[in-house]
Design brief:
Keywords: Plasmid. The chain is 34% helix and 20% strand. By secondary structure, it is an alpha/beta fold. A hairpin with a 5-residue loop joins strand 8 and strand 9.
């Protein structure tokens, strides 16, 4: 398992592989189907317990019409099981796709998965109610770096916002400028 300082995230101009995950109804979802409709704004979140993730998704939701106007869609990747993702939707009003990243497969592929230190895990679980062992597919308590990628129809990363400081998130205006 990597530490936060060891993850780098995929770089711009990297071509990604297609991936599949499940949606909140446990239905299969294939990323290439989203790319058939245009560019995708791909966002990694930590979970429904994270106030910064929720604030970010509220802003994305408010900017969704402008993102759609640019011919793009939004897909969010969460390490949480569907019952917890439903809480994210309730808290944020999200009308975009949120997928469950079982076994952290997608976050690993994007080199964004790390193990928080013991103090952080204690705070997340006790103060913020993350329930990482219960809400994820295993008990490792790993998390993705909150990151945003714009993926072109040819599976190439056009732009990224990857910052190990979970407070720093992509803004809707930044996303729109790069679409």
């Amino acid at each position: 398992m990597k530490t936060l300082s060891e993850v780098r995230g995929l770089d711009v101009d990297t071509k990604i592989d297609d991936f599949s995950a499940t949606d909140i109804f446990d239905n299969p979802y294939t990323f290439s189907n989203a790319l058939k409709k245009g560019k995708v704004v791909l966002i990694f979140i930590r979970g429904q317990w994270c106030p910064f993730c929720n604030k970010h998704l509220v802003k994305i939701q408010k900017g969704l019409p402008k993102i759609y106007e640019k011919g793009a869609s939004v897909v969010v990747i969460s390490p949480e099981k569907s019952e917890f993702i439903k809480q994210t939707i309730e808290k944020t009003g999200a009308e975009f796709t949120i997928l469950y990243d079982k076994d952290y497969a997608i976050a690993k592929t994007f080199d964004g998965l790390f193990l928080p230190n013991n103090t952080q895990r204690f705070i997340y679980n006790t103060v913020l109610g993350a329930k990482l062992k219960q809400s994820h597919s295993d008990d490792s308590e790993q998390l993705p770096v909150p990151a945003t990628y714009i993926i072109n129809e040819d599976f190439t990363i056009k732009w990224r916002h990857f910052n190990p400081n979970y407070i720093n998130r992509s803004g809707v205006s930044e996303i729109l400028n790069h679409l």
